[in-house]
Amino acid sequence: MGPYLMRFQIRDLEQFTGVKAHTIRVWERRYGLLKPDRTDTNIRTYDVDELKTILNVAYLNQRGLKISKLAAMAGEERERKVREMASHETTSDGVLNTLVMAMLSFDEELFERTCDEHERLHGFRSLVEDILAKLMERIGALWQSSAICPAQEHFVSNLFRQRLIVAAANLPKTATGGP
What we know:
The protein has about 180 residues and is an all-alpha fold.
């Protein structure tokens, strides 16, 4: 195993989703959303698929869908609903969460579509200052705590870099006085 997590503890899920550990435990018990393994000392551990599940459930729940309805959905249906809702996302927290989900699943299409929509609504400057800079801060904290792997950080960094290069290339040419 590399230096990043392949198994997550409940505090990691809390950090990724903003959902309190108590709520995650209730969702496990009441709805069977997650089925964590347990260590010898009875600490819950979750795999990457369970992390994606709780990210999707938290995302949809924060947008008004009832937990009972979400628990009844198949995983693929929840993912489809997240993609559908994310394509219309406008709040910076929602956009950031969508981009984190895109990073975790290496979903370039979701990342680009989300950035394109925010840029269309708020402009390139807002995309860089309000979204991508904050995303890089969040990714830094996740990387520092070994919650994500270097490939995930590189995935986002390269997509961000490509956007900056394209934007710079599209700047109007200025007349220079030359020697």
